[in-house]
Amino acid sequence: MNSTIAVITFRAMLGRRRALLLLALPLMLVVMAVALRITGNDDLDVSANVLQRFGLATLLPLLALIAGTGVIGPEIDDGQIMYVLTKPIPRPVIVLTKLAVAIVLVWAFAAVPTLLSGMILSAGGTEGMGPAFTVGVLVGGVAYSAVFVALAVVSRNAVTIGLLYALVWETLLGNFAPGAKSASIQQWALSVTDTLTGATAVKSTVDLAVAVPLLVAVTVAGTLLAAVRLRSLSVASAE
Predict the structure, then answer these.
(1) How many angstroms separate the CA atoms of 36 and 49, rounded?
(2) Fewer Cβ in 10 A, N or C end of the chain?
(3) How far lies 190's CA from each of 26, 43, 103, in Å?
C-alpha cells in the first residue's frame, strides 16, 4: 500500500461527478426498502428478492465497475499513470493500492446500504438475511473490484466489457443458461449468503466449497494480471 497514491485516488473518486454516481444506486436501494416497509410489502420473499436482484445482482457489480475502472482507468487514458510509474514504487504496490481503494469504496457504497436496507425490511430480523446479504456483498465486492481493475489496465474499453459481463453474462444469460449462472461472481457471492441464512428464498446454484476457492482465484488472478500489464505499460513508455 502507498498512502500518497491512496489519498490521491480517493480524492479523484469522491469528486462531485463520481460521488453522485456512487451515491445514486445505494440511495435507490434504501428508498425502495423504506417504501416497501411503509406499504407493508416487506415479507420475507419480497425482501430476499430486493436484496438479491437489486442489491447483489445490480448495485454491487455496477458500483464495483465504477470504482474498479475509475481508480486507474482515467489515469491510463490520459497518460497520467506514466508519472506514477516513473516513481520508485513497485508495480504490485500501485495495483494493490488502487484495488484497496476500489474495495473500500464498494464496501462503503454497496455493503453499508445493503445492511441498512436489510434492517429496514423484514429481512433484518428474519433468518439473519440482511447481514447474510451484506457478507455476500463484501466478498463479492473484492472479486468484482479485482476483475474490473484488471480490465481497466488491460483495455480502454473496460467499462463496456464490464457492463457486458455484469448485465449480459451474469444477468441475461444467467437466467437461461445454467453454465453461465454457475460461472459468475454473483452466484459465488450468493453461495456465501445462502450459507449464512436459513431463508429458503435464498438459493445459490454453486456450493460454498466451490464458490470460495473461485472467489479467491479470481481475485488473485485479476490482481496479478493488472500488475503484469502495468509493468508492460512502463516498458512500452520507455521504448
Answers:
(1) 12
(2) C
(3) 19, 20, 18
The pTM (predicted TM-score) of the whole model is: 0.90
Q: What would the grid cell of residue 61 be? A: 457489480
Alpha-carbon distances, residue 148 vs 65, 73, 161, 167, 202 (angstroms): 6, 10, 9, 14, 26
40 CB-contact burial (10 Å; exposed 0-12 / middle 13-18 / buried 19+): exposed
Q: How far apart are CA 133 and CA 66, in angstroms?
A: 21
Angle (CA) 40-46-49 rounded to 5° is 150
Q: How far apart are CA 210 and CA 161, in angstroms?
A: 25
Nearest one of 71, 52, 68 to 7, comparing CA atoms: 71
98-108 residue pLDDT tens: 999 999 999 99
- Give the separation between CA 63 and CA 66, rounded to whole angstroms: 5
User: Which of 25, 196, 72 lies closest to 123, judged by CA?
Assistant: 196
Band the pLDDT of 123: cuts 50, 70, 90.
low
Tell me the three cell numbers of residue 238.
520507455
Rounded Cα distance between 218 and 222, Å, is: 6
pLDDT greater than 80 at residue 227: yes
Q: How far apart are CA 173 and CA 58, in angstroms?
A: 15
Secondary structure percentages of the chain, helix, strand, coil, to 5: 85, 0, 15
Q: Which of 33-37, 53-57, 124-128, 207-211 has the lowest mean pLDDT?
A: 124-128
